[in-house]
Write a structure and sequence with these properties.
The structure is a homodimer of 332-residue chains. Chain A has three domains: 1-54, Single alpha-helices involved in coiled-coils or other helix-helix interfaces; 55-267, 3-Layer(aba) Sandwich (Rossmann fold), CATH 3.40.50.300; 280-330, no CATH class. Chain A has helices at 2-8, 11-19, 23-34, 38-51, 71-83, 99-107, 113-117, 132-148, 165-169, 185-188, 194-197, 210-226, 250-266, 269-296, 298-312, 318-330, and strands spanning 59-65, 89-94, 121-125, 153-159, 174-180, 200-204, 238-241. Chain A has 332 residues and is an alpha/beta fold. The longest helix of chain A is centred in the C-terminal third of the chain and has 28 residues, at 269-296.
């Protein structure tokens, strides 16, 4: 049905309705972005470009954590806090992984039940694209559309399984990591490096008998984070505990993010980081498209495969193999 | 002088002398690898390919730490321990950064004074190449030559300033991070993520009044590392203290590395990791060469620059800019 609509609405109509904050059309536009039909792609590109000047005014927040950490519950409470202040919030659920984990983000019909009914909130999965790069592009474009539609806070939600975080880190201003207390960190499956990307860590489910464990975890992580060199922003990540059911730590999280934003704006990192992210977007896409060109040649693709085998057998020098691929491709 | 020799020696002579462990010729061959003269590059490529089957039998150890941490002193003590066991050890100093930091690795004439005179030791800077990728390639090839020359332990030394570690990480079996106690970790300039790459951490200069601070640091880092998910190898990084002047912790470091090697060999990660590293070498070089092709076109280069400016001004969609570059380059 979206397809039909996307074909019925003109570029100008799409643009006008989105700028008017029409979330039905916004949803259709995001579907258009995700479409793989050549004619859709053309319109989608033009639409995103047309709305680009109206984008950039939101706070982009990445939220990650392994399944079971309570992401949905946290985001629901967090979102309600913001909509109660008449702030427009969009939640884009990114999931580049298999339909299996996709279920963990999108399957549960009851997730963010209240928020999804909130007129100030817009919730949308954007888990498309076969490659992380593809997912990132779609999400970047969805962010632009949401910002053009007047959303002031955009949450990019992803499952903390180690593959999508680095991608999401490059899409957002503030990266929030949700962790469980106690369980033993290995069990949480937080991959190395992810904690170091965090601007803030929230220990969830800090209620009932969990409170003491949560406080211990807070101390542990704060200490661990303290051991690392400060990030490029100069910001020192903070750890707080939260209980969504007791609605505790939610306001503190928002305060932490506001503190970060004013900090990063005052030292001009906020702007610099966004510029850097756009340059990364540009160069990543360049690499991606170059690589696609290679793979479009069936011969080259086969040759790469056979070289990979030879390389594993230590039968050919990897750099030499690469040179031969390039020479064959460019007919040198 | 090396050039002349490299022109005088035939490929067969180079190969035979290196296989005979002739370190003079080995040094000349590494110079040949680093040469930018087209005819040298051809011979160098053939030589490395010829010796490839004779490579791979060493333990490759990456050692990093900020200037002042005592790398040279540590490596000298560590190297002497190994040569005393009649083990042949090669030290390749990687420094992709400016001549300024290069000085910190290569300038000091007195560094590794004893080791450099040791018949079982071979010390060689390989800091060439304008790009990290270039440096990595030269180093990978130098490793192959050293292994063909019969060196059993190869140390890749780099300055812990955050740029070269990730590259070196992909060249070695075991990554050792040297840190100073006390000073305050921020002051050590250890970039985020580097500690998480380490298979082992050595707190240096643990002597005199530093001992208690060193022990405290050891406890702190061991605890911090414990918070992270185990690495792909399944190995849990260990932290030890060391005093090169009191020759303490040197033997323990070697034991730690031997423990790692038998651990990684028993679960087959050692082999898998090397295969993975060669595939990364292959694909990195592919990307690198593809990108070179782009930059060889003056028009494309200028267009990329102007797009970068427009992107920073939020005047063009990064993905669209990339598409235009590709279309122009391939004349689509």
């Amino acid at each position: 049905m979206n397809k039909t609509v996307s074909n019925r609405l003109s570029l100008a109509q799409f643009s006008r309705e989105i700028l008017n904050g029409n979330t039905v059309v916004l949803a259709q536009a995001i579907t258009l972005i995700e479409s793989t039909r050549p004619d859709d792609i053309v319109v989608a590109n033009e639409l995103v470009e047309k709305l680009l000047p109206h984008s950039g005014k939101s706070i982009r927040i990445g939220i990650t954590g392994v399944p079971g950490v309570g992401k949905s519950t946290f985001i629901e409470s967090f979102g309600k806090l913001l909509t109660a202040q008449s702030k427009k919030i969009a939640v884009l659920a990114v999931d580049p992984s298999s339909s299996k984990t996709k279920g963990s983000i999108l399957g549960d019909k009851t997730r963010m039940d209240e928020l999804s009914k909130d007129p100030y909130a817009f919730i949308r999965p954007t888990s498309t694209g076969t490659t992380l790069g593809g997912v990132a592009d779609r999400t970047r474009e969805a962010i632009i559309l949401c910002e053009a539609a007047g959303f002031e806070i955009i949450i990019i939600e992803t499952v903390g399984v180690g593959q999508s975080e680095t991608v999401v880190r490059n899409l957002v201003d503030f990266f929030l990591l949700l962790m469980l207390a106690g369980a033993g960190d290995e069990l949480q499956g937080i991959k190395k490096g992810i904690m170091e990307m965090a601007d803030g860590v929230v220990i969830t489910k800090a209620d009932g008998e969990n409170v003491s464990k949560a406080n211990q975890a807070m101390a542990d992580y704060q200490h661990a984070l303290h051991l690392f060199l400060e990030s490029d922003s100069g910001w020192k990540p903070k750890v707080i505990t939260s209980s969504a059911v007791e609605n505790q730590g939610i306001h503190e999280t928002w305060q932490l993010i506001k503190d970060y934003v004013s900090f990063a704006q005052s030292n001009n990192y906020f702007k610099k980081n966004r510029e850097q992210q756009n340059l990364i977007w540009f160069h990543d896409t360049l690499q991606h498209l170059l690589r696609n060109k290679l793979n479009q040649s069936k011969e080259i693709k086969l040759k790469i495969k056979s070289f990979e085998k030879a390389i594993i057998d230590n039968a050919v020098l990897p750099s030499r193999a690469a040179q031969e691929i390039i020479q064959e491709f460019f007919g040198a």
